[in-house]
Amino acid sequence: MKQKALKECDFYCSKYAECARGRTFSVVWQCRKQAKELNECLHQFTNDSVLEEMKKAYMVEQESKEMKQ
Question: Per the record, GO CC terms (predicted)?
Fold first, then answer.
């Protein structure tokens, strides 16, 4: 789930990384907009409903493997 979210939100990851480059403490307030955009994107792919869908897909996959054996 995390890997898919990061892949889907690569554009926002890059924007945040570019903003954060060369900063230490100031990244908190200087990159607030980019962090918010990244978090909103990541939340689309890392919420409870997505997790439930992935669990169901996994269970179906496991059941089909068992049926083949």
Answer: mitochondrion
